[in-house]
Design brief:
alpha/beta; homotetramer; 344 residues; 11 helices
Chain lengths: 344, 344, 344, 344
């Protein structure tokens, strides 16, 4: 068995790691830490986890206690990983950071997160863990920066268009909708049921930090600078992200059938990507590590629309991290990860 | 009192007319017809209406029975109004058709609805009832074609930009989200709770018929042909429409502050339009006849974003019809119509 | 116009008072106070209220500033009203306290709320404001203790049975379900959307404080001590309370038809009570001040089931307070209060 | 591999069988039939299943085509299983009927379902498949009648009390709440999102057919006739059942601590039963095969309250069927079945 630790196990991403690892055949969760919840039983915070982790208590978040672990998943807010991981990067086999601290260059981090990175010298030791776009790099990675939920959706939806140079990379629009779990378990008025219920609205208008990750990855995929206008919406559901992306063709666009064929070919080796003729709703991916994609060319307005959806806590966070971990330790990519969604 | 009839009173729009008219001080609902539900008590179909209309029964849908009424609201599916209203346009003071039959030219109707209009000679007797953009025409109208829910949202959100010639009318994108009540009370798998819950998805991709109304109105407002790419999404809530609209500036755009000031000025005389600094969510308008709007210029991507929301059954249908009726009979526009939303 | 003030206007009950008073023809809201939100604009906290109260700011909560008002509605948490109202009971015409401080005897308050009442000498100046069970007392009241949301539902559902001595008052069970707005706008993990969504559970098991109000009122109605086992459940919706109440008949019970007839008779003069043949769901009352009731006798198990529902923020709080205020100032009871619910 | 067929695979229970079997290591789904959906691709009806069953088509429902299968799961409405299963009970190793046709005696079936059973001679060949209360009988069963969702919840919640003779079996009350998926994918107005959302209500008042199964099982467990007053409620969520059960003690009741200890002991060998100190909400069990239980004695009202919850489509249907199948073929009971719930 592979010895696994979780840092920051009392938030929603941490709980989702526990949910998925509860039934993983090779990964053995030995230690789970939490800040303010240290000492509490996991089953008391998350009764859903009680049947497997009922009596395990959250440990305090001390780097020392994870020394020698095979895999450490770190699910802390941005800024916090930078503080604790320098003490672990040489002491455990592989770190998977699910926050934003090791995804961007120091310059981009400063620009979008508004503060200087505290350990820029470690950035090179983390690979950006989007398996479908960089499987080789992830397999060979020492440590992994697990991508954000919105960028995973948008980047997988747009990547084939940019890889083929089909669209103008300077006028990309990513209009997205997310469930509320993306905001975490933190207490905020805007996350209260009575505020979210029967309500759809825009937030983070023009300034959402995930823009940086979209531009970073799409620029690499397309080998040309990409500019993304990203508009996130909050919708009344717990989980799920939908990305509706608009792009202007360069020259004559392939028609919809050709685009769909290209998408299927592009992701032919990816068990977690399903290209569908008709657009799936987010519930098709609920609880699974799958992404559903479709694409259209609209001759009337000369626009390509690429649509993707996934579960933000699974493929957008915990599941994607485990997918990378599977690869790194030499397991089949799908080990312990659901392909099918919980519907209805 | 003004004698009011409702044709098609057992669907969601019909029920919403009844909800609003229950407390209207001048309009007296005398007869409500329904097709398959004729003979049923209103309070049995809609227990919410029982305290006021509990014992009133749905009458059969016979045009004759409405002859001589002051106001007739017709809430039938498209195609059905054309069949019954020719018998009424000369027999009642004012007809308010809440379906799509009298909104478009015969040519546009054929193109987008796929069938020839059966009484094109009557189209000129209906005014398109968007009070905020054509108050004078509505006040003077004989009969009114009540605008659709999506076009009302999008057109009010974009009108000031087009009126001022600030944006390229050929590349407009209207990315919208709607609650499920817009699909009516018809039995469809896609309207079942278990399908809609925890789910966000696109529908009507590239082909939604409301596109025609957006292009019609925005072309008139801007005095230049407008092309709209309209993408509707279904979100897990009963009511509400949010429109997030993207437009490319022509020349240098005013900044956000100037745009907000322009919007406030444009709608200064409109009690049902509230321009907010921050984008409102749909719940701010729940149950009310209000529209909330905001606007941004993003210099990074050189894009203007206009955002609007409303309650699809009120400002997007029944409330807007009553607003027009108030004007036509000489009442204050706001008579009997809520300005504030039901939140939380 | 009647000069109205609201103390504690930034919580959900305060916002609901503003929603209803926005369209009240006689009550003029002049001052609204809040603790931590003093200085904020009402329209910023509640965009739904912006069309009417957009620019009004929350004032600090100082008793002095309300001296001379006709009506003051106080929507503070229990314990807080006791501190501020002694300075106002002689300085304003009528106080309506929507918290728990003036509903119970000092002894009951100590028992259920776990602390001594700080001004028991004022308790007699407040009438318990359940209009349907004590209209005369409310009309003549100086000040009013507005009943709690659960007790209003349960007491109206059971009152006819106890008034007629039909059931054993010692074995009453009130199994209730509530939307989350009842927990207010306070930040609590258990009120987060992701915790409440797709979730139904019991809370306050065996110890909920509203039990005291049920026993108090039902004992008075039945002229014999009543004991209630009250089990509240939280359901994934914002508003609404449903009470399913079980009672054992004393002697032979009337059958269902006779019980329904008795309920209709009992509430014949009450515009806000609708007795229905079939049980209504809570949505029938959404946003309205109505209560829907039905009743059954089950010969198989020899049990009477009484079922009631209402909107906890309207008939269970703000609407009921305004209903009492209407009566006290001599207006028709229904002035400014919706009878029909917002459905769908 | 074990050769598995599903009859009635296009309803919600059928889809849930497919979701769970998609990742079962030993059961191989070879044929899935459907009535009206024969010929459709599974992935088109349920995009969630596309990653595993995307190209498999629903076959017509012909008994012949399942001859020789190891396991056949039948998820048809009551009445339909009786028609097709007589042709299969001698032709496949084990049938698991998820409808109501083989759960009750012919007399009880007639009484509660209102029609005579068409093959009463087959009833003895089906064991009632509640593993936790009859593990030995299930292990030895030829065919299995899979229990209903409500009875599973209520019976597991009350069984320890009746087994020990602690409560009066004639005055049991089971007040339950269910998500809407229990009504299946059938088109009904009462299952529409806009009707269910923001709504809680009673249905099937005094007459719900699942009462029969509760009385049957609890009578067996307690060796004395049990009478249950069962009140189901519909709540705005897709999945989940909560049962709040009230029972009167016979003689002096054990206190809460003793009751909790007794429950833990009673279910000590059951991996899918978790007894918690505090009551879990249904979301703790979402997507899992677990049941959460707790119990209280209330000395104030001399009542025992037992509370249970589960996912109606898993432990209440598909998961419970697979649990029984695992046992019958000699696999560990938990094979392929999640223990932890999908939360948040």
């Amino acid at each position: 068995m592979t010895k696994v630790g979780i840092i920051g196990g009392s938030g929603y991403v941490g709980a989702e790691l526990l949910r998925l690892l509860a039934h993983h055949p090779e990964f053995d969760v030995v230690r789970v830490s939490a800040e303010s919840n240290a000492g509490a039983r996991i089953g008391d915070l998350y009764p859903s986890l009680a049947p497997v982790f009922g009596d395990l208590e959250y440990a305090p978040t001390e780097a020392d206690s994870f020394v020698g672990f095979d895999l450490v998943f770190c699910a802390l807010p941005h800024g916090a990983s930078q503080k604790i991981l320098p003490a672990l990067v040489d002491e455990v086999e592989h770190v998977f950071d699910l926050g934003a601290d090791f995804r961007l260059s120091a310059a981009d981090y400063l620009q979008w997160y508004g503060e200087a990175h505290s350990c820029p010298e470690l950035l090179d030791r983390f690979s950006y863990g989007i398996v479908e776009l960089a499987r080789g790099a992830v397999e060979a990675a020492e440590h992994v920066a697990v991508p954000g939920c919105y960028p995973t959706t948008v980047n997988l939806a747009l990547a084939p268009l940019l890889a083929d140079g089909l669209v103008d990379s300077a006028t990309l629009i990513a209009d997205c909708a997310s469930g509320v779990s993306g905001a975490g378990r933190t207490l905020k008025t805007t996350s209260l049921f009575s505020e979210v219920d029967s309500n759809v609205g825009v937030y983070g208008l023009l300034t959402h930090r995930h823009t940086a990750e979209m531009q970073l990855v799409l620029s690499q995929v397309g080998s040309v600078d990409a500019t993304v206008l990203f508009t996130p919406h909050l919708v009344p559901m717990s989980r799920g992200i939908l990305a509706t992306c608009y792009a202007r063709p360069i020259g004559a666009s392939p028609d919809t059938a050709a685009l769909l064929a290209r998408y299927r070919d592009f992701y032919a080796e990816d068990p977690f990507v399903t290209v569908t003729d008709d657009p799936s709703g987010t519930k098709a991916t609920l609880g699974s590590n799958s992404v559903h994609l479709t694409v259209r060319y609209d001759p009337r307005t000369n626009t390509i629309i690429a649509i993707g959806c996934l579960d933000n806590l699974v493929k957008g966070a915990a599941g994607q991290a485990i997918q990378a971990a599977n690869l790194i330790v030499g397991l089949p990519e799908t080990t312990g990860l659901p392909l099918v969604g919980l519907a209805p």
